[in-house]
Amino acid sequence: MLTELRVRNFAIIEQLTLPLARGFNVLTGETGAGKSIIVGALGLLLGERANTDVVRTGADKAIVEGTFDVADRPELTTLLDERGIDVEESTVVLKREVAAAGRARAWVNGTPVTAAALSEIGRLLVNVHGQHEAQTLLDPDEQREILDAFAGAQNQAAAVRTAHAALATVRHEITELRRRKADAERRADYLRHLVREIEEARLVEGEDTRLDEEARRLEHAEELRSLASGAAGALDADDDAVLAHLGAVQRALASITRIDPSRNRLQELFDSGYYALEELARELEEYEAAVELDPERLEEVRRRRDLLFRLTKKYGGTLGEVIETGVKARAELDLVESADLDLRTLEQREREAATRLTESAAELTAMRRSAAARLGHAVDEVLPSLGMSDGQFVAGLVPLGEIAVSGAEDTEFRVALNVGHDARPLSRVASGGELSRVMLALKTILARLDQVPTLIFDEVDAGIGGKVGLQVGDTMRRVAAHHQVFAITHLPQIAARAHHHILVAKGARGGVTTADVAVLVGPERITELARMLGGDPESDISRAHAAELLETAVVPEPKPARRRGSRPAEPEARG
């Protein structure tokens, strides 16, 4: 639960510490005192988008910190541990900072985290219900999620989504294969010509480079032989050859090393050079003999080069691209022959995937049908305690023509608020206040299933008052048996039902407006309730009325609602 909220330099708040306790906490104050600002600060702490407008005028940054007791939430401790965040003494501290210059940062127990990570952790700690949230009840997706949560069917709904995705994937593969097959069939004649031309050429990667080299040798064969012959003769064959003149060098070196043995390396260098020249002369003679004057081979090479040139001009800039084009064309042709077999395989997969989806959706439908009946009865039992004694709630299932990603049916919440009227969609029969009470009834029921420890209600009392306000307050107090409840309200009837009462007051500090809080007990609480009642908070009558509200705050156990006639065992679909 949230034990303390600390806010500094946020909007009109200079510095504020809000203490919270178990049970039902209520926050009251004059209009404009800063109650909604506190909720806004809490939203920032829980990962909402940061905006520099929240930084108090003249301050460098706004800071919001929240301390949570998670002793009864071991799964949250495990999540934080997986993220490398230590939890000591079952305490988690969230911190968010927004600089006036625009930078926002976040921490969990002193460890820097992203806003997304802060939001993920925050959703496990606090659930905020705003004054406009009841409107989400009009959204079929929200209605379906509420029903699935009540049914404990989230895992089954996920299985349907997985099965639907698998079926969509295999159907896409079938469509794509049929398209490719049709394209290949239309191009078959061209593809056969292309494949025949390329495959008959028996192309080899790099062949064009080797042919270019061979063509140059054949075209310059006479010149190459003449050059090789001349070089070999200059080294060894001619009368004035290089090797013949090296004898004098050999004799001189022998004399030097005989006189000065330290110059033996000179002889070694001579020997290396002499042997290298001999090897060079021999290879030149062999090269001369190897160079062929072969006009027929030259013509053959030229024809082959012309063929490769034509193919690269038609099918690709390089020989490798031509070969790849042939491979792809062959694959397309093979597709014409193999597609039918592949399609039969895919169609079998499609039938299996469709069966899995149908079975998963049927199981989900059964869970929803059973839960819809139970949810209707449960809400009907709560509605009288919220001032809707004649209210009847129906969680309807509307079959779809085809199984969708969300299942085989839509969910439609319907309500009858007066005796003798048929249940109709919420959007057509419920006012804002009635919608808020239906939402509160659902929250009351789902609270037993919801694992989030702290529920915050931000002025959800719009459009109600008097006795209904007392009943709403009693309901929130009952919810507080399972959760920490924190409500911002203008209704004294709700405020009187709280276990803990906190007042927000607006003042000035240093010539700048600010907001402060105070925990109210005893006479102070009676004074605030008297103010909220609209009378003179110091008059005996107003204070007596306020004291009476407090004295009746003990909530009796709710009595089962009187059933009005029979209701169907399961919700019926619309025609």
Can you give a write-up of this model?
With 575 residues, this protein is an alpha/beta fold. It has a domain at 190-330. The protein is 54% helix and 18% strand. The protein is built from 18 helices and 15 strands. The protein has a six-stranded antiparallel beta sheet, covered by helices on one side. The longest helix is centred in the middle third of the chain and has 64 residues, at 319-382. The two termini are 46 Å apart. The model is unreliable at 555-575 (pLDDT under 50).
Put the structure in a nutshell.
It contains 18 helices and 15 strands. The protein has helices spanning 35-45, 74-82, 115-125, 140-151, 154-186, 188-201, 207-219, 221-237, 242-259, 264-290, 295-315, 319-382, 426-429, 432-446, 466-479, 492-495, 523-532, 540-551; strands at 2-10, 13-19, 24-28, 61-69, 91-99, 104-108, 111-113, 126-129, 392-404, 407-416, 424-425, 454-458, 484-488, 500-509, 512-520.
| Strand arrangement across the biggest beta sheet | 2-1-4-5-6-7
How many DSSP H or I helices?
18
Helical percentage: 40-55%
Unreliable stretches (pLDDT < 50, length at least 5) are: 555-575
- The separation of the N and C termini measures 46 Å
What structural category arises from helix and sheet content?
A: alpha/beta
**Major sheet characteristics:** 6 strands, antiparallel
Overall pLDDT score:
84
General form = elongated
Let me know the number of strands: 15
Radius of gyration: 44 Å
Strand content: 15-25%
